[in-house]
Amino acid sequence: MESSFREHRRDLRQVALVILDGVEINAKNKQESIKTGVGILDLIENHSIIGLAREHIGTWAQCVTKETAKAVEELSFAKKMYNLMVGKVSNFVQLESFIKKEASSGNKKVEKKIQRGILNYSLIDTNNNHIFKKMSLSNTIKRALSASPKVLAADNPKFYAMVLDFTQSSADILEKELLKQNELKIGHDLQMREDQVKAMERTVDQKKKTIEGIFDFMLPCKSIIETNFRVRMDDGSHKVFSGYRAQHSHHRLPTKGGMRYAPDVDMDEVKALAALMTWKCAACDVPFGGGKAGITLDSKAYSVAELERITRAFAQQLNKHGFLGPAVDVPAPDMYTGEREMAWMANEYQRLNPTDLNAPACVTGKPISQGGVHGRVSATGRGVFHGTDLFINNQKYCDMIGLTTGWEGKTFVMQGFGNVGFHSARYFARKGAKCIGISEYNGDLFNENGIDILDLEDYKLKNGGSIVGYPGARAWNAETEGPLIEAECDILGVCAKEKVITADNAHKIKAKILSEGANGPITPKGHEILVKNNQLVIPDLYLNAGGVTVSYFEWLKNLNHVSYGRLTWQFTEDQNRAILGSVAQSLAAAGQNIPINASEELEKSIHGASEKDIVHSGLAFTMKRAGLKIMETADEFNLGLDVRTAAYISSLRKVYEVYSQAGFN
Ligand SMILES: NC(=O)C1=CN([C@@H]2O[C@H](COP(=O)(O)OP(=O)(O)OC[C@H]3O[C@@H](n4cnc5c(N)ncnc54)[C@H](O)[C@@H]3O)[C@@H](O)[C@H]2O)C=CC1
Ligand SMILES: O=C(O)CCC(=O)C(=O)O
């Protein structure tokens, strides 16, 4: 896809946002409508979503009917949008070539065509005087087109479109390179006869088609399920929940990825996260395809018993539809889920599949008593540390961003103090960096002399899960001091949620290194600004892969039916003690009666490696190897500080190879 086309799509989205902004409707409806406008444009521009248009709009309508007073009208509006869209989408090829052609023509013409496009999408409801009632559309469009960037809408891409954007631009680079290498083959042997050249040309042509076919196939999500299931509440009433699981890629099985509970979870979000999982697993050579699940709910609003019933009901649905099982699809913890939810899922799966010997491997992130592995809880944060450690100790990258190497004396701010944020902060601090700020959803803390991470975690646990009021730091006033993530520091850990750094605030971020512990915390436009400003973004698809890496170890443990180290532990200790004894004996034979004792350090590890040792060293090795590969790719493609593109290329190349060598006919 040419970059002009991508730019053009952004223009379309911005204009749509401003149009909807000009509509006189109440604030909540306006919010919903803006979402719809953007959603519709995304649907049209997104090839892979065509078959899912109906479900997507249905979900949107459902959400609106639940949340706004104008429920019925909104629903009929959504249906009309859907009908219009299906009409357009069946014509997508023409629409795309039309936009592409116009994007490369003169500016004025492009604007007119944008206007016409927007009119097509926006006027559909003028007949029944609904949303666009009091608006002069053409004036609004004029205003939109002449608006200064400040007036234009916020940078808020749909999550899946955002991941596709990152993937597509990296895929373009790699695909071009592979096609170039393919072409080169013909020119190689000048001694070839004409018929040989022709045969070679045919081979090259076929290979070109295969390369293009693989790239077209690699990007979109392969299977997605939406399930609306019923659960009994504690008061005897029944409630319907929407759950999703996306399997992005089946190039390796099972598919793997977390499960989150959040009020704004939808299909777009799980698709985006599943796609990220594919590239993440590939980055770290974890042999899984990408998957992700979510249930649209606010977990704080339900009792533990209700959450258990919801989780079990969801597991039943996934099991029924082939989206759960050790060989097919293996969930894990993500936002607002943890060991507890994983235990319920594993238990439910085992109940439904009593003869499956490998049943515990149907989810990872379980408690140890249920077949979990030591070190999974802290694994993602540990991986964030290892990845950041690799870059912060690399002279070349530190020179590029004007920072000295090493942790000592560095300051950091952490956004998100949940599983990933807490453990990342713990390891950063352990290495000598000073945590000066912690940002949470309900309040921020600041202490220029440093915040004690373990003490804060203690406080949080005793304080109902909130960091607010912690006595070891002062409350940061975002209203007067600005958002904490924009504060002066060396490293910013973005470990809370997606889309927190966008074109609207990227230029205000002062940290030299941004560690993406969360999935998708920076939008494509935000990323572009940071790279231009010589800031180093260590990207999610590499940096937070520690979780899935250790999940892989847990899955292997479950398939092996034995914990790491159990078979070698005693043997190694006996052998080590025998070596010490043998040295003492030899000395004695030579007349030297010197007792040979293990040093304190050797005594600590005289037995074989424990499960924890194996998991920790396996994770450290994985993060280092993957990071070095990404650095090598950045050099190969001359990408400078754009480590994200390097990581995507590195992953795309690995997935491409799997398809290519498996046979793609
Ligand atoms: N748990 C895991 O193993 C992995 C998690 N991730 C990603 O890391 C991110 C965080 O996940 P977890 O730590 O597991 O979730 P979590 O639920 O344990 O922690 C998230 C924390 O972020 C806070 N938060 C939410 N919105 C915020 C905001 N606007 N500003 C500041 N803080 C905010 C929450 O209050 C919570 O404390 C997510 O994007 C997740 O997908 C990525 C890889 C693995
Ligand atoms: O441990 C896993 O399988 C997945 C972790 C996850 O959801 C993620 O990396 O985003």
Automatic annotation (TrEMBL):
Name the SUPFAM superfamilies for this protein: Aminoacid dehydrogenase-like, N-terminal domain, NAD(P)-binding Rossmann-fold domains
Keywords from UniProt, A to Z, are: Oxidoreductase
Q: Where is the signal peptide?
A: none
**Protein family (similarity comment):** Belongs to the Glu/Leu/Phe/Val dehydrogenases family.
Give the catalysed reaction(s), semicolon-separated: L-glutamate + NAD(+) + H2O = 2-oxoglutarate + NH4(+) + NADH + H(+); L-glutamate + NADP(+) + H2O = 2-oxoglutarate + NH4(+) + NADPH + H(+)
Q: Which InterPro entries match?
A: Aminoacid_DH-like_N_sf, Glu/Leu/Phe/Val/Trp_DH, Glu/Leu/Phe/Val/Trp_DH_C, Glu/Leu/Phe/Val/Trp_DH_dimer, NAD(P)-bd_dom_sf, NAD_bind_Glu_DH
Q: Source taxonomy lineage? A: Eukaryota, Metazoa, Chordata, Tunicata, Appendicularia
What name appears for this protein in its UniProt entry? Glutamate dehydrogenase 1, mitochondrial
**Pfam families linked:** ELFV_dehydrog, ELFV_dehydrog_N
